[in-house]
Each structure stands twice: as structure tokens, then as C-alpha cells.
Amino acid sequence: MKRTVEDSYKHKGLRKKLIESIREKGINDERVLEAMSGIPRHFFLDSAFDDVAYQDRPFPIGEGQTISQPYTVAYQTELLDVQPGQKVLEIGTGSAYQAVVLAMMRANVYTIERQKKLYDENKLFPYLKQFPFIKFFYGDGYQGLPTYAPFDRILITAGAPEIPEKLIAQLKSGGKMVIPVGSGNVQQMKRITKMEDGSMQEETFANFSFVPMLQGKKS
Ligand code: SAH
Does ligand 1 lie within 6 Å of residue 211's CB atom? Predict the structure, then answer.
């Protein structure tokens, strides 16, 4: 994969417009918008996508996977309500764009990818070197990261057929999980809050379309 490493005036201008369009679509958490304003999305894609990287659309990143649509990233991040210093587990590293959004919001990010090729690609991505608070893992997100649990926040960026029990178990008391749930082409965005008494509060939001959360890892 060939990456562009320069953030030109043109890219900065297009990025500003993208952030404004996301704001108009209803995202009003300034911390999310500010984080995304500072991230050159075109760095995360092959340079063939340089001219379109700031369209509010998903794009292919190889292995049949996609970088999420910016509006979707903003929507999930807003629901996650992450605070500085919190431990956040992300399932589905993909391009690492979402992980960087969380790092820009000063979270300690643990992110898991099941596809070895995508995981390896991020090891070769120089821009990520400036984010020591992102820890990358190759593994099956359904297992979570028991060694590092519990987490303040858990974000799933692939469509889950159901809410994974093992991940709920790795959520702190008072912690929140944002997860698109549904096995077809459409998922409902849900936010699960683990209450102090151990019970779960579930909220349902808009419909989205994610690539599926799959079992096991792929070499
Ligand atoms: N957060 C990513 C979105 C990538 S799309 C970004 O910002 O670019 C979803 C990703 O989830 C894909 O890379 C896919 O391989 C990965 N994935 C699917 N099931 C998974 C699982 N069980 N564990 C870890 N990653 C998974």
C-alpha cells in the first residue's frame, strides 16, 4: 500500500468542509469534531483515494474491509462519551482511523484486529508512531483482552450478530459499550451501560451498515 504523507492546503480545506457537514448531520460533541479536524484521513487510505478521502463515505482498505464513514465514526464516538485517561477497548482496528480519534481525545486505546494483513499494515504506518497510547493487538475481538480488563469503554466497529457476553464481562461497573447489533446488512446502534448493581441498561439508536464481526482470527 502506498500512502500520502503530506497534508496539503487542499486536504485541510476538504477536511474542514467534511467536519462542517458532519456537524450539520447532527453531531454536536465539539471534542469529537475537534479530534476529527486534526486527523488527515487521506493518510489512512491508499494514495489512489487522495482526491475522495474527505467524502463522507466508507472506502476499501484491503481484505474486503472498509474504513468507516466519517459520520459513523463521529456518531459512535459521540455515544461512547469517552473522557481523558479512560481505558478504551476497540474491536476492529481496520485502518486505525477510529483508534486515532480516541487517542486524540486522550483515551488509552487497546485495539484488536482479526486480520493479520491489516494488523501488519498498521505496524508500517509511520503516522501512528506519534500515538504511544494506542496498543495494537492481533486476535479475535470476541475474546476481548482479559489481561487488560476491565475497560471504561468498549467500542465495536463491526456488525455484531448479538452482544458478546465476554466483552460485557470486561466492562467496568459504570462503563459503556457502543455496538452495532444485527446479522443482516443493517445493524441497530446500541449503547449498553453496566450499572453499579451489575444490571445492564440498553439504549437503541439509528440504523447503520457495517462489515460483519467474525469469529476467530485470520492469518
Ligand atoms: N475501526 C475501523 C473500521 C474497520 S471495519 C476503522 O476506523 O478503519 C471493521 C474491522 O473489524 C475490519 O477490519 C475487520 O477485519 C474487523 N473485525 C471483524 N471481526 C472482528 C473480530 N472478531 N475481532 C477483531 N476484529 C474484527
Answer: yes
